[in-house]
Amino acid sequence: MAPLSVYRGAELQQVLKLLQDHQGKVCIIAGGTDIILKLREKKLEPEVLLDISGINELKGISEYSKQLADTGLDGLKRITEQTMIKIGAGVTFSEIAKSPFFSQNLKGLADAALSVGSPQIRNAATIGGNICNASPAADIIPVLLALEAEAIVRSREKEETMSLQGFILDKGSVKLLPNQLLCSIAFSSLKENQSLGFAKLGLRKALAISRIAVAAFVEVGDNAFKNVRLASGACGKIPKREYEVEACLEGKAINDGSIEAAAELFKQVLKERLRGRSGAEYKGEAVKGVFKEALRKALGYQNI
Amino acid sequence: MKEISLRVNGEERSAEIHEEMRLLDLLRDALHLTGTKEGCGEGECGACTVIMEGKTVNSCMVMAFQAEGKEIITIEGMATKDKLHPIQRAFLEKGAVQCGFCIPGMVLSAKVLLDENPIPTRDEIREGISGNLCRCTGYNKIVDAIETAAGYLNTGGDSNA
User: Fold this and answer.
1) Residues B33 and B54 in one domain
2) For a disulfide at B134, which of A182, A294, B102, B138, Cβ 3.0-4.6 Å?
3) Is there a single domain that holds both residue B62 and residue B99?
4) pLDDT tens-digit series, residues A139-148
5) pLDDT digit string (tens) for A223-244?
6) pLDDT class of B157 with cuts at 50, 70, 90
7) Does residue B32 have a pLDDT over 50?
8) In contact, B62 and B6? CB cutoff 8 Å
9) Tell me: the pLDDT tens digits for A168-178?
């Protein structure tokens, strides 16, 4: 193994050039809370360690407007403006937890950030790192899947936007070429009748890796679930959308009966998925409670 | 090897580092600031907590080269020459220290907590030290000490008043 060289990136273009010029030899480090363990255990032996934690272009949470082309019922094309929220890949969990963007309807995102590790870990660990590490138990991924977030990836030549769901390929694997860097995450801001909830089952309050995590996006109208998007963490090889359970709630009146039926279905889905694995029985039962808590929180953030 | 400079406890320091070194190794082995402890080495226990740019971090989870140009406070930076920091004094008075291994990290987590929230509730104190594990005390006396320290700091840091 070549001796390790280390660089602190000062600006994005320089980092993208280094990635381009030394393809496959560079390992990116930001918060370091996952990567340093892998380096010490020699699971990773890069030639170059490139620190991106000081790059301003990867920091900050902001709103911007995106134009969407839409064909109306009258067959005419219209351009509508959609407000998007963008989180830089280098934003830490502490910054997400404290951000005024993630209060009220979007508080589920702050809840998920606060459930990570400990204050020390949250001060260092970044959203981009959590995504690229692609752990089955990554806490921020289910909420972003429920928001249908997109990943914005850059190489020296071009910028690409893809769905986060498509970006996460497998446990520990993301769709990133050796010359590309995950730069930010973006999703549509929520309307008044939409909200996000997050709940997690860990073995203790702090420093707990998720045993089960559930994120729930709900859109409410006429006292019914108009639109529901659910995602789970630690319930399979990667965090994933739970389409079957979503479909079971869609259009149903908001009451104990509809929620209980969906919880029961979630249990069956998970028991089937984890069949033959230890803990399947337990997780099947426990997911009901975690799911109901996530849903209750989402509804609570809209005062329903 | 690489030479880096940073500010530690208010002083400009420079050190020769190996590329594989963590901030923890830089502090303990290169700068001989051995008040910072290594416990688990994987970000769970908080014994290696230091304050970097005003925020607590596990120094076992930061590479030394990442600390270039950064402002670091370790436990050695808390007391002045002849006077303990009010948080340290409160820990002694309340019997919050048993074996002592977790205490440097506890004190630094308490400092950042009280800097950001001068009158924390007991629950907020527990949240503030949730990244610092203690195997001896059962935490109650540590929480007592941080409450007492908050009082000292809010009255100008003088416990004899």
Assistant:
1) yes
2) B102
3) no
4) 999 999 999 9
5) 999 999 999 998 888 999 999 9
6) low
7) yes
8) no
9) 999 999 999 99
Three-class DSSP category at A212:
strand
Range of the domain at B22: 2-74
Structural contact between residues A174 and A134, judged by C-beta atoms closer than 8 angstroms: yes
DSSP states of A15-57 as a string?
Answer: HHHHHHHTTTTEEEESS-TTHHHHHHTTS---SEEEE-TT-GG
Tell if the CB–CB gap between A37 and B19 is shorter than 8 Å.
no
CA distance A140 to A215: 9
One-letter amino acid for residue A157 of the chain:
E
Count CB-CB contacts under 10 A for residue A279.
Answer: 11
The closest CB to that of A119, out of B20, B60, B109, belongs to B109
Helices in chain A by DSSP H: which ranges? 12-21, 35-40, 93-98, 107-114, 119-124, 127-133, 140-146, 164-167, 243-249, 256-273, 280-300
The per-residue pLDDT for B142 is 98
Q: Is domain A62-188 classified as CATH 3.30.465.10?
A: yes
Angstroms from A120 CA to nearest CA on chain B: 4
Q: Examine the domain organization and report whether B140 and B98 are in the same domain.
A: yes
Same domain flag for B18 and B66: yes
DSSP conformation class of A268 = H
**Cβ–Cβ < 8 Å for A23, A178:** yes
Tell me, what's the pLDDT at A245?
97
Distance from CA of B86 to the nearest CA of A (A): 22
pLDDT at B121 over 60: yes
Block residue for tokens 């071009």:
A158
pLDDT at B34 over 50: yes
Instruction: For this complex, say whether ipTM is above 0.85.
Output: yes
Q: Which candidate in B2, B125, B130, B139 is best for mutational testing of the A interface (most A CBs within 10 A)?
A: B130
Q: What percent of chain B has pLDDT over 70?
A: 97
Name which CATH class applies to A194-300.
alpha beta
Domain edges within chain A = 5-54, 62-188, 194-300
In this prediction, residue A3 carries a pLDDT of: 66
Structure tokens, A105: 């309807």
Report the distance separating Cα B132 and Cα B123, nearest Å.
Answer: 15
Structure confidence at residue B134 (pLDDT): 96
Q: How far is CA B92 from CA A39, B82, B89, B98, B100, in A?
A: 39, 16, 5, 10, 11
Size of interface A-B (CB pairs under 8 A): 79
**In sequence order, which residues have a C-beta less than 8 Å from that of residue A14 and are 6 or more positions away?**
none
How many domains, in total, are found in chain B?
2
Q: What is the pLDDT of residue B160?
A: 47
